[in-house]
Amino acid sequence: TEQSVQAEKKGMATQGKKGIVEAPAAPRFGRIRSNLKMGILGLPNVGKSSLFNLLTEQSVQAENYPFCTIDPNESRCPVPDQRFKWLCELWEPASIVPAYLHVTDIAGLIRGAHEGAGLGNAFLSHIQAVDGLYHVVRAFENPEVVHVEDSVDPIRDMDTIMFELCRKDANYVASCIARQEADLKRDPKKKPPPAYYALVDKIQNMLDNNIPLRSGDWSIDDVARINDIIPQAITLKPIVYLVNVDKRSFLRKSNKWYAPINEWVKTHGGGTIIPFSVEWEQELWALRENPEAKEAFLADANGLKSVLPRIVKVGYNVLSLIYYFTAGEDEVRAWTIPSGATAPEAAGAIHSDFERGFIKAEVVAFDDFKQLATGKSMAPIKAAGKYRQEGKTYIVNDGDIIHFMFNVTAKKK
After folding, report:
1. In degrees rounded to 5, what are phi and psi of residue 265?
2. Cβ proximity of 117 and 111 under 8 Å
3. How many CB atoms lie within 10 A of CB 278?
4. Contact between 242 and 136 (Cβ < 8 Å)
5. pTM for the full model?
């Protein structure tokens, strides 16, 4: 439609065939692990907890997926993947385990949170425990849902959030510098190199001007130093902006705030933008046990589908996570690993012994397997030369199907 074309030109994520507008790749700050979490952040009454509840309910509902609610504010959501579904249908295993995205509902943030206003301290502990952020932005009018600032203005709200995050980081950076200076007084030989002071000055200047640290022009050495001196800085975390609109705007694929929000995001560190509607998603979810009503509801939506699966996928991707598959009659499973992991590191996702005693990985790309397989046998894949043996330096690709060979003869000392 014309609206979706205009949205694409403006850099907004559309709700049609083009999918989601992704943010440019950024240096990898933070933890390099597989058990990373996304946190849902926002002002009160923007739809933050409603989104969390929708994601949680749909995870519980997912058939055959083991589900665990870690606490009332944290859940894990299966990452939707047609490749995984296809493997499960082929193998019909006794156990199926998808990749999961861990999601946390972060305590509400209000103006003055960096000074402890509202649940400021709880907010800090929650946000430091996650690795990426969903920032829910309210772009809907509803007199029954009172806005904390008494009016709907997404740009003002995003300014408030950015200010609070940068102030919180500025306080954190100051405390880290103070510790460094205290260490220096105790041992003058620990004086850091000149590059340290130049880096700290740049960091402080960015935060003083409400510029998120993730948007800086950093060298590889800078990233390593930043991860060392301020590992818990909030504005280093990747962010996805979820624009919560009313049902009518969602169906029209148009809202007066789309263009201003996109412009704001471009000038404040960038990030992926996904329009969605809690109102519409809740109505769709309420029809889950009535197939005919659900079909009629979707028929009136001009081809639109739930955005929740895409929200989960994008959250997984901005954390630089991928997964490989193990497949057989006992189990089909997706194993989450950091992008760039070597074959031994990927084997370690299964068990530390697999990494320690790694011999080789027998690998086939999913697309090759699907194209060549005539059943469960690997014989056609091997005959086509697509079944590979890889060593310790192999970088695992997303969607690889892998069988590891390992041998552990003695315990690690």
Report:
1. -60, -40
2. yes
3. 24
4. yes
5. 0.85
Structure tokens at 331: 């189990």
DSSP assignment string, 115-136:
GT-TTHHHHHHHHHT-SEEEEE
* DSSP label of 354: H
Collapsing DSSP to helix, strand or coil, 310 comes out as: helix
What is the tens place of the pLDDT at every residue in 67-95? 344 455 888 999 999 999 999 999 999 99
Question: Residue 163 and residue 211: Cα distance in Å, rounded?
Answer: 9
206: left (phi over 0), alpha (psi -120 to 50) or beta: alpha
- What is the per-residue pLDDT across 14-51, written as a single tens digit (0 to 9) for each? 443 333 334 444 457 887 777 899 999 988 888 888 89
153 closest CA partner among 135, 140, 166, 134: 140
Separation of alpha carbons 127 and 133, rounded Å: 8
Whether 148 contacts 43, CB under 8 Å: yes
- Going across the sheet that includes 331-338, the strands are 95-97, 331-338, 321-327, 400-406, 358-365, 388-390
**Radius of gyration (C-alpha) of the chain in whole angstroms:** 23
Residue with tokens 């800085």: 233
- Distances in Å between the Cα of 72 and the Cα atoms of 69, 210, 258, 303 are 7, 32, 32, 34
Quote the CA–CA distance of 191 and 297 in Å, as a whole number: 66
**Structure tokens of 63?**
């058939």
* DSSP for residue 313: H
Contact 133, 239 (CB under 8 A): yes
Q: Are 133 and 38 in contact (CB under 8 A)?
A: yes
Task: Determine how β-strand 272-276 pairs with β-strand 239-244.
Answer: parallel
| Distance set, CA 337 to CA 95, 148, 393, 402 (Å) | 20, 40, 16, 13
Torsion 123-126-131-133 (CA) sign: negative
